[in-house]
Amino acid sequence: MRIAIPHSLDRDEARKRLRDKAARAAEKADGMASVTTTFTDDDHMVMSVTSMGYTIDCGVELAEKELVVEVDLPASLGFAKRMIEGVIREKSGKLLS
Questions:
Q1: DSSP H helical ranges for the chain
Q2: pLDDT classification of 25: cutoffs 50, 70, 90
Q3: Alpha-carbon torsion (18, 19, 20, 23), positive or negative
Q4: Would the pLDDT of 42 be above 80?
Q5: Which of 12-21, 25-34, 35-44 has the lowest mean pLDDT?
């Protein structure tokens, strides 16, 4: 699943915010999930979220005017695709706010 979240930040500011907020993602999960983030370069992050026995792996790319999230959604969570997409849009948008 590919989700694009538009932004209007310049690239340097977007990078700074993404790194700062990604570092605090595990704290924000508040014990409901385990979150790990790793930056593979300035504009790409790999994120893994584990909760309730499921692990969702995501690739995050910081593009010029959008944050693109590629989600590897397990088939067993297909029934929750829309809900998961909504949560990703909400939380990913906050990474740059």
A1: 11-23, 25-28, 81-95
A2: confident
A3: positive
A4: yes
A5: 25-34
Contact 57, 47 (CB under 8 A): yes
CA distance 92 to 97: 9
Rounded distance, CA 1 to CA 14, Å?
Answer: 23
Long-range contact set of residues 34-42: C-beta below 8 Å, sequence gap at least 24: 42/15
Q: In the chain, what is the straight-line distance between the N-terminal and C-terminal CA atoms, in Å?
A: 23
Query: How far is 78 from 74, CA to CA, in rounded Å?
Result: 7
